[in-house]
Amino acid sequence: MPERWPQTITVAITGASGVQYGLRLVEALVRTGHRVYLLVSQAGQVVMQMEAGLNAPARPKEAEAFFIHHFQAQPGQLRVFGRQEWTAPVASGSNPPDAMVVCPCTTGTLAKIAAGFSTDLIDRAADVTLKEGRKLILVVRETPFSVTHLENMLRLARAGAVIMPANPGFYFNPTRIEEIIDFMVARVLDHLRVEHQIGRRWGEDPG
Question: Which tens digits make up the pLDDT trace of 149-167?
Answer without folding.
Answer: 999 999 999 999 999 999 9
